[in-house]
Amino acid sequence: MAATHPSVHQRLIGWNLFAYGLTGYYFWAANYWGDDPWSVPSGPGSSIRRGGTLYYPHPRTGMPLPTLRWEACRRGFQDYQYLVQFTEAHRQGKIPPQRYAKIARRIDQYGKFGRWDQVKWGDLEDVRAQIGVLLSK
Length: 137
Description:
Elements: H1 8-19, E1 55-57, E2 64-66, H2 68-91, H3 97-111, H4 121-136
Antiparallel strand pairs: 1-2
Helix pairs in contact: 1-2, 1-3, 2-4, 3-4
C-alpha cells in the first residue's frame, strides 16, 4: 500500500479490471464488522477485518456511512470508465497514436497486480487528468 494515500490499492481494483479485460468484481463483504466497529479497534485479537468493511453503521440511526475504502473503490470504478472511453476513442482514431501509446504504457504499469505498493494516488490522478483532456477534445 502506498504511503501517499491509504486506499490506493482499493482504487487500483478498477485499473486491474481494465488491465485484465474483466468486467466485474466480487466483494466478499461490504458490511463485515465482527465486533462493534465504534468501540473495538481492528488488529490482533479483533474479529474486525477492514477489507470487508466498505461502510459502517451510523451510531445512532444505523444508516450506512461510507468509508475511505469505499470512496477509493468508487474512484477506481470511475477510472475504469475513463480507461474504456479512452481505448474506444483511440479505436475510433480520435486519440493521436503517440499520446495513446504513452498513456497506455502507464495504464498497463499501474493496472497489473503486485504493484500496489509502488503506485501513488497522484500517479493515477495524473493519468486520469491526461485522459480527461484528450477525451474533451
